[in-house]
Amino acid sequence: VATLANTDRPRRLKPINLYYHMYSGEKQASLKALLDNVAWIKKQEIQPVTATRFAEIAEGFFTAQIEPDGPDAWRIRNRGALQTVRFDHVVPTALPDLTTSTGVIGARRINTSLYVGLDPAVPEPRVVLTGGPAPAAMLVSSRWPVEAVIRQGGGVAFDAANGFGAGEMRWQMPAPGRYTISAGGESRPAETDADGQLSFTLPLGSAAGQR
Asked: How is 168-199 classified by DSSP, letter by letter?
């Protein structure tokens, strides 16, 4: 926990990786330390991935190419499994312009940086930053991987491959109000908070669409 806290600011440098041997259970003190770390991880907002997946993401970091493509615009090429790019020292209101960007799922500011999520279904996304709020649905966080995003009207449809645990996610919607969540052949109403953020949990085993 101390290591992750010390590598989280001013920008994130390390992923969470809880590594232990079975003999951690031989002594009460070591078992307690392990369980304390597990309890701490469960409280974090994370997207669990396999070690193989993380290795693919790391390889994508070394092959990715970022090319200027207009004012405040960049084209991302050869990124492999890397689906997040980070922008440092941008204005506090900066967000992706979803009307001119392609292959952008969402964005979130953490500490002093803006993290932009890319769509695995788009080989060469284009990221365009703007100084105002996003005019369409934008992913804020998700415990499951999200891809093949299609924005339509005031809503959005997407594929969500099964992750680990429940499919918790949060979207910034273009307007506060009531929406309908459609997933696994079922639909239910949901309402945003005062800031227009819609939080919901997908059922296990579902390929999901949200509108």
From this structure: EEEEE-SSSSEEEEEETTEEEEEE--TTSEEE
